[in-house]
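User: My instructor asked us to take a sequence, write out its structure as tokens, and then describe one feature of it. I'm not sure where to start. Here is the sequence I was given:
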Amino acid sequence: MDTFPILDQLTGPADLKAMDSAQLKALCNEVRQGLIQTISRVGGHFAPNLGVVELTVALYKVFELPKDKVIWDVGHQCYPHKMLTGRWKQLHTIKQYQGISGFLRRDESEYDLFGAGHASTSLSAALGFAKARDLRGSTESVIGVIGDGSLTGGMALEALLNIGDQKTKMLVVLNDNEMSIAENVGALATYLAKLRLMPTYQKVESTVKRSLNKDGLLYRTAAGAKHAATHFAAPANTGIFFEELGFQYIGPIDGHDTDFLVQVFEHAKHLDGPVLLHILTTKGKGYEPAEKDQRTWHATTGFSIEDGKMEKKSSGVTYTQAFVESLNEVAVNNDKVVAITAAMPDGTGLAKFADKFPKRFFDVGIAEQHAVTFAAGLAAEGFTPVCAIYSTFLQRAYDQIVHDVCIQNLPVVFMIDRAGLVGDDGATHHGTMDIAYLRSIPNLVLLSPKDPQELREMVKFALAYRKGPIALRYPRGGGENLTDTCVPIQLGQSETLRRGDDLGILTYGPIVSEALIAANTLESQGHSVEVINARWVKPLDEVAILALARRTKKLITVEDGILAGGFGSAIIELLADRGLTDVQVTRIGLPNHFVEHGPIPKLRELVGMDAAAIVGVAESLLKLKQSTVARA
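Assistant: Let's start with the prediction itself. The structure tokens for your sequence are:
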């Protein structure tokens, strides 16, 4: 499809009101083809968006946006929403620097009612919108859309319990495609799978159509309304779990039949109290490679539409690969090593561990809090649990890290993937807080590698460390090994990468590479600069750091994280505690605001934490030193 006559003329959801059945189906085709053509060029979340085309079109046909409130979960499936709400012509900029976000953002559109980038939030937020409506005395509809994968998150279950208890009028749309990013896990996923197989699904469409009156509403009396709404022709126990929570349950129904979805939405919006509409969709619908391999096609780089060949993401070994290869190497000879992920077996690399050690691998679903306390229980029984979670998601389990792991000083190994700036996913996914939120916790030690080679050795050290919890942070993607060999990893010991007497650069993690580039530039200008790869932010290598501070009197700290409470703060605290108040320290890192999406080199330039920024800061410090000497 080269032209998009309906999409190109669409100004917003209100335009769908006048469309007939044939036009709605044509619009669905344009949305799907527009997604395929655009994402094949620029990359982005793919299969989940293809799966919700008809669902989104039907929702926006029936409800009045933005008066009615549609709250989406996660954002992996928000592209059709954006296309129907005035952003189709900007879709080619999605996740690009200064383009539209790949997630929901309140400051991007009046139709993005609630920001989303993490899972399992839509129902809690939707209940807030519904209660605000009731307190205000208005009558708009409130719809919370959530996937079956997000329903594995404890927060979603908490919201379901509260919604049912409150008996608030709102609609929960359960988009059930049997997938999170990978396959769903847990008892609730099994329950939903059973609902898929019930006779209801085969019978429900014909039964509902027989029950619809000329206005498109089910015939119902006050006494029989709930039964008519929730059971259609279903067996008595269909959806009983949700009904026992206080919901009127409708479904399961075909999520790719636009006409039928419109009818059911028209009916559901008139029901009182909480309603759960169970819709079955196919992730990747309409693009055969994505339907056949939904995990791989969840999100993609650019690709060839004709044969499905994707562009290579990067060359060389990634940090994630280095982690899991080292983990597997140790696990062969240590049967106490177990691995845990929160619904991210592919992203964390643990799928390769699962292939080799299936009985020692645990995917707990989108449940980071449970993952951490589960790991604590394993550690309490003598195992070495490796809890691999992205930095941005680990913050959801902060209390469990403190209360269940660190207070009890249990030897849990936290592998913190996607630490630092992550690029095109933006503020919701940058892993910039972990140094600050972990550094203050007693008993926990925290380290980070400068390159994949060093990460391998750190993994081995962490798995052998039994004195308490240990956290190892590393970035997305790959990196060149900065040295030929790796100095052995020892607790609290740094690595001096180059010697110098004029200025010291203390750095931590993969951003060491920027410090080394800056040091080379400064050396070409005649300056003697020492670079220390701190390796540890807790405990610090006090001997090496204090010696450098006393000798140079000028330090620059560089970190890939927020400055407030981070690595540079730790250095300043050390110097203050030791009475070295005459040492000048300039910290380089992320300022106290959320960083936009874009290529990592560009983002580093924007926030002033690349090699050029380090050189600029160093030149200022060195000039100050020279002027002081001249005055003396």
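For the description part of your assignment, you could build on this observation: The chain is about 40% helix and 15% strand. Try explaining in your own words what that tells you about the chain.
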